[in-house]
Write a structure and sequence with these properties.
Number of helices: 11
Radius of gyration: 20 Å
GO molecular function: ATP binding; transmembrane receptor protein tyrosine kinase activity
Strand order of the largest sheet: 1-2-3-5-4
Helix content: 25-40%
Organism: Artemisia annua
Keywords: Kinase, Transferase
Distance between the termini: 61 Å
Number of strands: 12
CATH architecture of the largest domain: Orthogonal Bundle
Protein name: Protein kinase, ATP binding site-containing protein
Domain Protein kinase: 1-296
């Protein structure tokens, strides 16, 4: 990390600051084996931060370079980093003590709430894909329920945060894709674009595929009432087998009878386009946003007519 740019240096946090915030990385401050929770000093606005530890030999600077450039209210805030330790680099993130989307989908939630989640996440991806200033487009590379957090009460939420930028890549605006070997961890995950797995070509369409998988998780739910599907791999097998049967078989039983059928159809048709094996058929994120907003409007109008 010795060749960091001047812009990145302003994010450097002294190792002593981290030790003070975590009582010298005491186990009482540990969240996992490689992460700690602590409060920074006044210089960093006394912010509560999550410190993640990475092995220097394995950690690339791409996440650091990307996060330092992102400015979006729905993206988890990057506070800084520390590279003074001989073996490890520490990344400091905004601490967001709320549930992940994975947790929320285990409970009953109404259709407008689920659509609003999709719209907010899609807008984050559209921001990333549109280009971060003059630096290029960002491909997230790991969009999934476990990387989306928000504060929700009674099917309402004010804050949503997209995280999980460890596998993200910055692609110049004049390049359609980037040749990058798919990490072994992502090869095993059903939300990873199969074309990326096969060709090692990472592009914005890769994120669109992952977003499509996310859409089906939101449509189907992952609670005990959602059928016999026990994992994402099983869900995607069900999705591929239900194409001709419409959205009904894929819909969370909690939503059936309470959700406009046309809205469900618009949503599921879009989701199928996102996971197409032909990347030319996958829509852009701006198109995705408009279509989900249409599904939302159709459902809301149906409620008004019913009333």
């Amino acid at each position: 990390m010795s060749s960091l740019s001047v812009d990145l240096k302003k994010f450097r946090i002294p190792l002593e600051e981290l030790k003070c915030a975590t009582d010298n990385f005491d186990c009482d401050f540990a969240v996992t084996d490689d992460s700690y929770l602590g409060e920074l000093s006044e210089r960093w606005q006394n912010r509560t931060a999550l410190f993640k530890r990475f092995n220097k030999e394995e950690y690339g600077s791409h996440e650091l370079e990307i996060l330092s450039r992102l400015q979006h209210e729905d993206i988890i805030s990057f506070i800084g980093y520390c590279d003074e330790d001989d073996d490890y680099i520490y990344m400091a993130y905004e601490y967001f003590d709320h549930r992940s989307l994975h947790d929320v989908l285990k409970s009953e939630s109404k259709w407008p709430f689920r659509l609003q989640i999709c719209i907010r996440v899609a807008k984050v991806l559209n921001y990333l894909h549109s280009g971060v200033g003059e630096h290029g487009r960002v491909i997230h590379g790991n969009i999934r329920c476990e990387n989306i957090f928000f504060d929700c009460r009674d099917d309402k939420f004010d804050t949503i945060k997209v995280s999980g930028f460890y596998y993200s890549k910055l692609v110049p605006l004049n390049q359609p894709h980037q040749h990058h070997s798919c990490p072994e961890e992502l090869l095993e995950m059903s939300h990873t674009d199969p074309i990326y797995k096969e060709t090692n070509l990472l592009n914005t369409e890769s994120d669109v595929y992952s977003f499509g998988v996310l859409m089906f998780e939101i449509l189907h739910g992952i609670g005990s009432e959602s059928g016999d599907v026990r994992n994402l791999h099983q869900l995607m097998n069900l999705v591929r087998g239900c194409y001709d049967d419409g959205p009904y078989k894929l819909t969370d039983p909690y939503l059936r009878g309470n959700t406009n059928h046309r809205s469900l159809k618009i949503f599921s048709t879009l989701a199928y386009k996102c996971i197409s094996f032909d990347i030319k058929e996958r829509p852009r994120m701006d198109e995705i946003i408009k279509t989900i907003e249409k599904a939302f409007d159709v459902h809301q109008v149906s409620l008004f007519i019913r009333w």
